[in-house]
From TrEMBL:
Coiled coil: none annotated. Pfam families: Pkinase_fungal. This is Fungal-type protein kinase domain-containing protein. It comes from the Eukaryota.
Length: 439
């Protein structure tokens, strides 16, 4: 619903069922429905709704007027107002496809005043998100805190981080409806309690980051993949030394930046970051298991509080899923040679890591694959495409350090293993990954 409509703050919906109709509002915090009414008995009310949809100002039916569009020679182009400037959208980088939650959009942009779209030095990144006001501090706080403490390499640099304004006020989900509505609104089964006091309130924030990262999956060779991963683990170590825990290590959050001929790792998305000394005090953060499910550690999936070793286990899963899902640099896998079918991870035993909403069950499924080296080989490594198979030894070493060592895995051990295998020679010939053709 929202993923295809980046210009919507909320969505109004009119449902017509026979001669009955009702109006609904969908946003990132809640859904509210009006009562069904009889169109024949209340035709004027029905017409008022239709006329409102047709002729009222776009801002009054949920549109974000700070995002505009126009047709140019290359097609429809979007423009975003942020930080006092207007930016031209070059391409969307990430869209979080869910209704309730942060509704995050990330775009590659450049100032509208720059006519050269190919000038990569002028590219920036805009992140549009609805953050839970009950869970401060926010991403910009952690980035600034890290940079003020000397961590400037390998993390984003913020140009601007401001709350979006609507009619001169901060744009929040509680402000979509007026005080009269909230005074009379009650949640089902919550008699006597105001809905406004019980529903989360989300604030519309727009962050501008300097530059634009390159996805880690665009690595140019296996040595570079291990080097970028080691860079990001090193950044994670520096954050840990400042009592900061990332808590959402995933493929989407590991990027690269170009530094001459060498790419460097870039760790992004600090939305779930926490100060370790305060994590135990934050009951809401403990109750909510942060992270991206395929990359979450076994313990965190099981409900444990995040620790540094959990971030490292997530780095391990990032490398596993890159090896599984890519048959070469920037080349998504499309063929499963073992089964002679198009590659589909849900056709493997690893589907048990991904299917279902019971995180405890997913934790048990992941633990079952990691319980022994033979199961790790049988259920995980054997699924690698031919290009990734010579990274199996590296992953076996990481597996041993994480799951079979008497000591908890540390950043130094993780980096040492990556450096050890980065020094080796790899076969960079990319095997043909086209579908098998029966003769």
């Amino acid at each position: 619903m929202f993923s295809s409509r980046p210009t919507r703050r909320y969505i109004l919906s009119l449902m017509v069922r026979g001669l009955s109709a009702r109006l609904s509002l969908f946003c990132r915090s809640y859904v509210t429905h009006g009562d069904f009414f009889d169109i024949e008995k209340k035709p004027v009310g029905f017409l008022r709704i239709l006329i409102g949809f047709m002729f009222c100002e776009s801002k009054d039916i949920g549109f974000d007027t700070t995002i505009t569009s126009k047709y140019e020679a290359e097609g429809l182009v979007r423009f975003i107002m942020a930080g006092g400037l207007t930016y031209r959208v070059i391409e969307p980088l990430f869209i979080r496809d869910m209704i309730r939650g942060r509704r995050m959009y990330v775009w590659k942009v450049m100032p509208r005043s720059n006519p050269d779209l190919n000038d990569a030095s002028k590219w920036d990144t805009i992140k549009d998100a609805w953050v839970d006001t009950a869970q401060p501090p926010t991403e910009d706080f952690f980035i600034n805190h890290a940079r003020e403490n000397g961590i400037t390499e390998g993390i984003p640099e913020i140009i601007s981080a401001k709350s979006a304004l609507f009619d001169g006020k901060e744009d929040t989900t509680h402000n979509f409806l007026d005080d009269k509505f909230w005074t009379n609104c009650r949640l089902e089964g919550k008699e006597g309690k105001l809905a406004k006091d019980m529903l989360e309130n989300r604030l519309h924030k727009r962050l501008i980051f300097r530059g634009c990262g390159i996805p880690i999956t665009n690595f140019r060779n296996k040595k570079e993949l291990l080097q970028i991963l080691a860079d990001s683990v090193q950044v994670n170590k520096k954050l840990r030394e400042k009592e900061l825990l990332h808590r959402d290590i995933s493929i989407k959050n590991l990027m690269m930046t170009c530094d001459g001929p060498r790419y460097q790792g870039l760790l992004i998305d600090f939305d779930y970051m926490a100060i370790m000394s305060e994590l135990l005090k934050d009951t809401k953060a403990v109750a909510h298991r942060p992270g991206t499910v395929p990359f979450m550690s076994i313990n965190v999936l099981g409900g444990a509080i995040n620790k540094p070793a959990d971030d490292l286990q997530s780095f391990f899963y990032v490398l596993v899923f890159i090896c599984l899902g890519f048959s070469g640099p920037g080349r998504e896998r499309n063929w499963d040679y073992r089964r002679k079918i198009h590659w589909d991870i849900y056709q493997t035993r690893l589907s048990r890591w991904l299917l279902g909403e019971d995180l405890t069950r997913l934790s048990d499924a992941k633990a079952g694959r990691m319980i022994s080296e033979s199961k790790f080989q049988r259920d995980v490594l054997i699924e690698f495409p031919r290009y990734s198979r010579d990274l199996s030894a590296c992953l076996r070493s990481l597996w041993g350090a994480i799951f079979r060592s008497d000591e908890v895995i540390t950043h130094d051990v993780f980096i040492r293993i990556l450096d050890q295998y980065q020094a080796q020679e790899f076969d960079e010939n990319i095997p043909d990954d086209s579908p098998f053709i029966w003769s």
